[in-house]
Automatic annotation (TrEMBL):
It comes from the Eukaryota. It comes from Spodoptera exigua (Beet armyworm). The lineage of its organism: Eukaryota, Metazoa, Ecdysozoa, Arthropoda, Hexapoda. This is PHD-type domain-containing protein. Residues 20-70 form the PHD-type domain. Gene3D superfamilies: Zinc/RING finger domain, C3HC4 (zinc finger). Residues 1-20 are annotated as: Disordered.
Length: 70
């Protein structure tokens, strides 16, 4: 699973495309969030680090969403 390292993170920057991004777990929008985000490298969907169970300060944390992991 070493090839599933975090591919991208979102932290406190904004564009119109990112403002429309929904968390794949809770469906809240990026524009309404203050915490970090992580992207699944397989399906390319985004999730709050908190919802995904990932430490948002840890750039080396591996993440794959539940759908892609199964």
């Amino acid at each position: 699973m070493s090839d599933v390292k975090r591919s991208k993170t979102k932290n406190n920057y904004s564009s119109s495309e990112e403002d429309d991004t929904e968390c794949l777990y809770c469906s809240h929008l990026y524009s309404e969030s203050t915490g970090g985000w992580v992207q699944c490298p397989v399906c390319r969907l985004w999730a709050h680090c908190l919802c995904a169970g990932v430490e948002d300060e840890d750039e080396e944390t591996e993440f794959m969403c539940e759908k892609c992991a199964n």
